[in-house]
């Protein structure tokens, strides 16, 4: 077949333009632009013709080009390290959903861990002139915060605090205190804490609350720290906690992933049973915590609630750019399941 009767693949992939819509509707190019601009002046009859033409041709407004012309994009950068892990993955999902509902375009920036990866992440985020930045955890460096400030971006920080920035945090210290009181309500106990050497503000606060409350009640706490706050880190912490003679009979884990690693280690490498010999509390209440294999008692932090608060702060900051920084602290709820003796006794 000759080339005259065949469209090129390039033609097949071209997007429908506003000019094509204008020609199809019999109106000017500027009329199409006004029809898709909220509040712009265009008659109802003309708008109807334009919308019918757009529907027929499959036209979509080029928001990226419009944002560049207006010197304001709808992109919101979500800066996070290891977005695939544990609670963080659920928070990323909740934030992207909330931002899309807001009319924003979320762009997830995985910072990585090497200097090269961090530099590439920074260039990506600020090269696209995102309208705002949300930092999700304690891992991304302060250089992201400084660069956001220099670019005049609204900045929302989750799970940590930064000078001059709005933030949303969980009452981690209060949860740690509650975990200690829960364990000690049944009488004297040998307490343990499973944490991580990769300390973030949230994990430090949980540890402090647990240790301080235990001390108030005259209870000592044995600490085991894995390399990271993940499943492997939980196994490393468990090895430290249960390798000696004075093994704890109640352990507060810095998050659910650490709790899963600790429980599996105890089952495979000790003669202890959960919850008969060992009570375990986690933190986050990710879906796997309710699985029969773990049935974990844990503190619940709702990702959708945190996302809603973050987006509300973003709206407020854009409406009132000179408002003093807002610091919100959300409470948690202890969800009792079968990994603690008190909860198991109540069930039976």
Summarize the structure.
The protein contains 14 helices and 12 strands. The chain is an alpha/beta fold and 348 residues long.
Distance between the termini: 78 Å
How many DSSP-defined strands?
A: 12
Count of the separate structural domains: 3
What sequence of helices (H) and strands (E) makes up the elements? HHHHHEHEHEHEEHEHEHEHEEHEEH
Q: Note the overall shape.
A: elongated
The CATH topology of the largest domain comes to Rossmann fold
Structural category is alpha/beta
Overall radius of gyration: 26 Å
Arithmetic mean pLDDT = 84
Major sheet strand order: 2-1-3-4-5-11
Low-confidence stretches: 1-12
Largest sheet, in brief, is:
6 strands, parallel
CATH class category label of the largest domain: Alpha Beta
Helix content: 40-55%
Instruction: Tell me the CATH architecture of the largest domain.
Output: 3-Layer(aba) Sandwich
Give me the CATH superfamily of the largest domain: Response regulator
Number of helices: 14
Task: Describe the fold and architecture.
With 348 residues, the protein is an alpha/beta fold. The protein contains 14 helices and twelve strands. 45% of the residues lie in helices and 17% in strands. The chain has a six-stranded parallel β-sheet with strand order 2-1-3-4-5-11, with helices on both faces. Helix 2 (18-25) crosses helix 4 (44-57) and helix 9 packs parallel to helix 10 (201-216). The protein is elongated, with a radius of gyration of 26 Å. The protein starts with 8 loop residues before the first helix and ends with a helix. Mean pLDDT is 84; it is low at 1-12. Keywords: DNA-binding, Repressor, Transcription, Transcription regulation. Residues 16-70 form the HTH lacI-type domain. It comes from Phyllobacterium zundukense. One of its GO terms (molecular function) is transcription cis-regulatory region binding.
């Amino acid at each position: 077949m000759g080339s005259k009767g065949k469209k090129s693949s390039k033609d097949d992939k071209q997007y429908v333009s506003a000019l094509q819509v204008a020609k199809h509707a019999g109106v000017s190019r500027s009329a199409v632009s006004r029809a898709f601009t909220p509040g712009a002046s265009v008659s109802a009859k003309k708008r109807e013709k334009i919308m019918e033409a757009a529907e027929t041709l499959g036209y979509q407004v080029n928001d990226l080009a419009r944002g560049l012309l207006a010197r304001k994009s709808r992109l919101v950068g979500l800066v996070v390290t290891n977005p695939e892990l544990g609670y963080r993955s659920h928070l990323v999902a909740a934030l992207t959903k909330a931002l899309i509902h807001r009319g924003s375009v979320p762009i997830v920036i995985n910072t990585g861990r090497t200097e090269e990866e961090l530099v590439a992440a920074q260039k990506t985020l600020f090269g696209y002139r995102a309208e705002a930045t949300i930092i999700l955890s304690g891992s991304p460096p302060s250089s992201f915060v400084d660069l956001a400030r220099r670019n005049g971006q609204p900045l929302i920080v989750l799970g940590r605090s930064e000078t001059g920035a709005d933030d949303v945090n969980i009452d981690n210290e209060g949860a740690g205190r509650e975990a200690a009181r829960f364990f000690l309500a049944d009488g004297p106990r040998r307490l343990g804490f499973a944490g991580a050497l990769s300390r973030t503000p949230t994990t430090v606060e949980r540890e402090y609350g647990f240790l301080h409350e235990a001390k108030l009640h005259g209870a000592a706490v044995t600490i085991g720290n894995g390399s990271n706050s993940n499943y492997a880190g939980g196994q490393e912490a468990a090895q430290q906690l249960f390798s000696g003679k004075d093994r704890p009979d109640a352990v507060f884990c810095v998050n659910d992933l650490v709790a899963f690693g600790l429980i599996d280690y105890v089952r495979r490498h000790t003669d202890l049973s959960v919850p008969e010999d060992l009570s375990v509390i986690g933190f986050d209440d990710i879906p796997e915590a309710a699985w029969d294999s773990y049935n974990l008692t844990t503190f619940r932090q709702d990702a959708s609630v945190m996302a809603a608060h973050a987006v509300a702060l973003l709206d407020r900051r854009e409406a009132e750019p000179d408002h003093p920084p807002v610091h919100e602290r959300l409470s948690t709820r202890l969800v009792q399941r079968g990994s603690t003796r008190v909860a198991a006794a109540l069930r039976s």
